[in-house]
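Duplicate of earlier report; Glucose-6-phosphate isomerase input re-posted below.
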Amino acid sequence: MKLKVDFNNMMKGFAGPVEGFSKEDIDALAVKISEAHQNMKEKRAAGEMDWRKLPFEQADVIKDILETAQELRTWCENFVVLGIGGSALGPLAVQTALNHLHYNELATEKRGGPRLYVLDNVDPERVAALFDVIDPKKTVFNVISKSGSTSETMAQFMIVYQLLRDKLGNTYAKNMIATTDAEKGNLIKIAQEEGYKTFIIPQGVGGRFSELCPVGLLPAAVCGIDITELLAGAAYMDQLCEEADVYRNPAYIRSTLQYLAMERGKNVSVMMPYTDALKYFADWYAQLWAESLGKRKSLTGEEVFVGQTPVKALGTTDQHSQVQLYVEGPFDKVVTFLGVSRYRQEVAIPKVFNHIPGISFLGGHSLGDLITAEQMATEYALMKAHRLNMTIILPEINAFTIGQLIQLLEIETAFTGELLNINAFDQPGVEEGKNATYALLGRPGYEAKKQELEGRPEK
Ligand code: PA5
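Output:
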């Protein structure tokens, strides 16, 4: 069950002589690719990319997660993730990919585990709405924050803390699980003082690279997802991506083509799954790609701005909206389709209305035939218009292939960071916003930032 990467429509002959790339274009980057490969090795040795170890080195953590999940599944009706960004998008993407698309609405026996809610915003209406549909006593709240200080997550946590204390008194701690750094931040201190079950986000695993540590594995296991298979898939892909030869490494070839595209002004990267199950993968990818690669760098005193704006689309839904722009709008995009060879369910289109040829041709096909044809048709329309596009094909959606997809896209992102010569693992732009929020709401230590904010031009 190996993922396939089809990049034909990025190449001359498919994407046309002007837009497409040649083997010579790729080979001209040989030195850069080899340096990037070397840099990745050095960063790994220095512990800066420990997310690559996650599929291999978590035996004790997995045991703990599985035991915890098993126990929770006996009594817990709702499992609520409190987190944002990298602490929320992965759990949501994996849950949607691997569990029933109406999982929360299934009867308890069919679900076999608690409903899952991922509260990744502080919209008061959304938070209040959640409390209308859950019984806090039968709910476990998994507060996830690497820094242990993000305002949104900590505010949610404080609200839930008070709620649980009011409802459950001193026994409330069994309804709270903290996933955070081993030392840094306030959350670990509170968790230890209050006696919460705690899971650790390892060093060298940044927010958006954390899906395969307890951040993503605990919610997945609690909802019955086979996390061992997820990690096995990631390990399999990781090994494929050890290869130095760009033509044999699926992450490197995608990354190199994206890099070439960026050099030619393709500033937009669209991810368009042709399955609702991967809809939230496009959200997860959008964060990974944007936050890792959208950077300002200084080159001999001159400032350069790099990155690609990620766009989320869904096939076939967005064929009837965005695809017009992709086919005829500016030549500024690379589209990645996510396709599946076999859908897990099939629905037949009945042979009815035989007297109306304009629709009767659909009868006898399945919805799988239709969506596959639609994907092929969109790829064709883009190719005909010389628009760059690639396809990642999953033989089927299962824990093993989803593990592969996560690792593929993470390695591709990190490698693109090396090609761009930027740090893919920091996020100064996001931190600036976090710090400004602390200052505006009066966090001690942020007085200078507050002054700076007050000095901003009046609107
Ligand atoms: O990728 C990142 O580092 C960010 O998106 C973080 O995941 C996000 O800001 C949440 O941070 P934290 O987990 O520290 O609360």
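The pocket of 5-phosphoarabinonic acid is lined by residues 84-87, 145-147, 150, 153, 206-208, 291, 427, 430 (CB under 6 Å).

Merging into the original ticket.
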